[in-house]
Amino acid sequence: MNEKVQKLKDNMEQRIVGKGEVIEKMIISLLAEGHVLLEDVPGVGKTSLAKALADSVALSFSRIQCTPDTMPSDITGVSIYNSKEQTFQVMTGPVVNNIVLVDELNRTSPKTQSALLQVMEEYKVNIDGEDIPVPQPFMVIGTQNPMDMAGTYPLPEAQLDRFMMKLSVGYPNADASGDMVSRFLEGQLHQETKSVLSADDINEMRKQVKAVSIKDNLRDYAVNIVESTRTNPEIACGASPRALLSLIRCAQALAYIADRDYCVPEDIAEAAKLTLSHRIILTSEAKLSRTTKEYLINNILQQVRCNEATN
Predict the structure, then answer these.
(1) Which among 248, 215, 235 is positioned nearest to 282, based on CA atoms?
(2) Measured between alpha carbons, how far is 227 from 240 in angstroms, rounded to an integer?
């Protein structure tokens, strides 16, 4: 693994027990300029993951706790009238930070959820006609409870499509749980995470990710995978052009963390698993037959082959 990525991962694992795979995927998304949606039951460490990432890279961090009465201005900010100067002053909201944790995103109304659409795509917020850029690097980490829990609103497709990955944290295994208890009893479980990289390091790593080469046959492979989601009879709505670009950038990040300056077919296939399943919509018949999105993506990867590169 790339030395800096390994350093960052090891530092986060000192605080988050038994979640190396999830940590690695979050780092991949950060380097690929993507956003992450964490879906799982309460208490598995979704918030701690986001905070550990921000602390490890010495980035500004904000947490937005979503409730049914959260307003869009609570996220983006407001314009306040200054009676002394007789002018309006823009007060930016918590979204203007490097790492933004939007906790329990699906517990707030669709109107408030839509407040994140612009900033996740354009990296700026508009407050009373004034565009306010967000600092770089910028990443939104959303968390949500499973949809069968009380008091949840389903995220619209436009919102889901802006997340590069949708991850499940899951319960730790027995060994990791035992380690967690030991750290808890020793008072070391919730210690602050020291920074090992800077914002400049992340921005430079992002530049290196963009420089990873992808040959034409691999580009065609990615295009064919996405096209197959649009023609599959069990998929009502296939992956969008944004999903294709996310797949490409994710594949570059996968190659980068493997310390390569070029992509291989396995990078494209793995990136497809990470970036496509939450973006497709199944037909009613597929839902009734309990077909999963992950199953369909795996089937597509078995059917679509990568052609050999030509010199």
Answers:
(1) 235
(2) 9
Q: What is the pLDDT of residues 34-72, one digit of tens each?
A: 999 988 777 777 888 888 888 888 888 899 888 888 888
Backbone angles phi, psi at 95, to 5 degrees: -70, -15
**DSSP notation for the chain:** --HHHHHHHHHHHTTSTT-HHHHHHHHHHHHTT--EEEE--TTSSHHHHHHHHHHHTT--EEEEE--TT--THHHHEEEEEETTTTEEEEEE-TTSSSEEEEETGGGS-HHHHGGGHHHHHHSEEEETTEEEEPPSS-EEEEEE--TTSTT--PPPHHHHTT-SEEE------HHHHHHHHHHHHTT-TTPPPPP-S-HHHHHHHHHHHHT-B--HHHHHHHHHHHHHHHH-TTEEE---HHHHHHHHHHHHHHHHHTT-SB--HHHHHHHHHHHSGGG-EE-HHHHHTT--HHHHHHHHHHH--PPPP--
Domains of the chain: 3-185 (3.40.50.300), 211-303 (1.10.8.80)
Rounded Cα distance between 48 and 51, Å, is 5
Burial class from Cβ neighbours inside 10 Å (0-12, 13-18, 19+) for residue 30 reads buried
The overall pTM is greater than 0.70: yes
Per the CB < 8 A criterion, the answer to whether 29 and 36 are in contact is yes
Q: Enumerate residues 6+ apart whose C-beta is below 8 A from 285.
A: 234
How many of the other CB atoms lie within 10 Å of CB of 203? 11
Q: 190: pLDDT confidence band, cut at 50, 70 and 90? A: low
Omega prior to 135 cis, within 30 of 0: no
